[in-house]
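At your convenience, could you comment on the folded chain following this short note?
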Amino acid sequence: MIVTVGGQAASGKSTLAKSLADRLSFKHLSAGKLMREMAEEKGMSLLDFSIYAETHPEIDKNIDEKQKSLAKGDCIVDGRLSRFFLNPEVSIWLVAPSKIRGERALGRGEKYKTLDEAEAAILKRDVSERKRYVDYYDIDLEDLSCYDLVLNTGRFNIKQMTEIAYLAVDSLRSIK
């Protein structure tokens, strides 16, 4: 069974995906981790790398292909576009207020001096990624109609988010 967890930048995709994978004893794959590794290899911030990717479609296509090749068996895959490439049995989308997402970016060690700077960078990444995904794939990230569950991670802690996601996955898994 493949479950995808997509969402806005710093909405908690990897955190939820890891926790849910542990709860279900599934493998966890992260497009965000791949993106961070590629940005680090180029000595760029995530925002700079996201903007760079606007004119280098091979970056997103490389990440997409890696996900497809690794997503086998029971797994939770986190990434904004994973739902569109993997044909998951369950797809989850996460949202959170930009201030909370900025706090999370600061908390995970991204190199921002202030919360305002982190929040501004998150919002710029949102714009950059929306543009790339429409240009490259004709995917509108604001159309959430294809998701089985949309969860506001600003309202719940990780234990609650995992339980909500687990119940959704378990109930959809039981009707297959």
About this structure: The two ends are 10 Å apart (CA to CA). The chain has one domain: 2-174. The CA atoms of residues 72 and 150 lie 24 Å apart. The first helix runs from residue 13 to 24.
